[in-house]
Description:
Beta Polymerase, domain 2, 41% helix
Amino acid sequence: MKDIEALCSQIVEMLHPEKVILFSRKIHLNGETSSFKLCVVADVADEREAQKQIYIGLDCDIPYDVVVYRPERFGELRENEGSFAQQIDRTGRVLYG
């Protein structure tokens, strides 16, 4: 979890998000994290550009994926039954915010 928390801290420093949610984590048989996925809810001008900034500017020893939502968009989508945002909101673990 240290690598995940370290990346989360870097994202917080970079984007000042409202929330960072861990919504998937794969674990090796030895108990170590093999990959993970984060959802970042941040007031950004362009979600794809913010996602690109994370991938280009931040490094992590463990493979990861990240999805970025603007707060208003995440709020709307998580209200839609069966949406990906609702699943993240319902099952994810909030790391920040």
